[in-house]
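Reference record
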Amino acid sequence: LKLVESGGDSVQAGGSLRLSCAASGDTYSNYDMGWFRQAPGKERVGVAIIPTGGIISYADSVKGRFTISRDNAKNTLYLQLNSLKPEDSAMYYCAARHFLIATWDNWGQGTQVTVSS
């Protein structure tokens, strides 16, 4: 599955962004999808996961501010980022995991989010 992110930008604290991830190359609805982020000098961490079926999950640091969604008809994953904080600044990656496989082995190239105070 090929993944291409877009929507990253530089915003002021308190602002909003909407990230998108376009998928192609396989049956999108067979994949759990997730957003991860990596800040300079830090490990990549999960932000939000939306499985093919089941419960959406969020990192505690973004609960109530970020919303993940998917449109299986458009093969697209979204992440709505509200009330952004400087600590949300990072490279955001879209990832896919086939529902029969436990590994996140499909990754996009990333889109940069920078939040200034």
User: Anything to note?
Assistant: The chain is about 0% helix and 50% strand. The first strand starts at residue 2 and ends at 6. The two ends are 37 Å apart (CA to CA).
